[in-house]
Amino acid sequence: MTGIALALAVAAAGGAGAALRHLVDELVPARGHVPSALLVINATGSFALGVLVSVTADTTWHTVVGTGLLGGYTTFSAASLDAALRWVDGERASGARSAALMLAVCVAAAFAGVSVGG
């Protein structure tokens, strides 16, 4: 798959990923100072991307599922904004902890995905 067909597949998958992200965001309750839904979304997306790249070398799958579906599902920008807003609101320690937690959990999840898939 190439050209316009690939672009349309990525767009459709991205829309599905965004809808899935919204669903998870609605279902995961907030807990204290941890952005729970963002953490679940980004960790599961990182894990899934790790599995994807370790089980197939097919660039079409990487593009449609990795860039489209998982790109629409995960939300690095929202996690970054959460940390930045905490910082701006004077909750600097909370913002720094949130950013560090997101990074550590998501990198660990991607590593686990690669390990499970490979």
Written account of the structure:
There is one protein chain. The protein is mostly helical. The chain is 84% helix and 0% strand. The protein contains five helices and no strands. Helix 1 packs parallel to helix 3 and helix 4 runs antiparallel to helix 5. The longest helix has 26 residues. The protein is globular, with a radius of gyration of 15 Å.
SSE blueprint:
Blueprint: H1 3-27, H2 36-55, H3 59-73, H4 76-88, H5 92-117
Beta-strand level of the residues, as a percent range? under 5%
Question: Termini, distance in Å?
Answer: 25 Å
Give the CA-based shape. globular
Number of helices: 5
Derived structural class: mainly alpha
Number of strands: 0
Low-confidence sequence ranges: none
Helix content: over 70%
Order of helices and strands: HHHHH
Give short descriptive properties of this protein.
118 residues; mainly alpha; 5 helices; globular
Task: Produce a short descriptive summary.
The protein has helices at 3-27, 36-55, 59-73, 76-88, 92-117. It is an all-alpha fold.
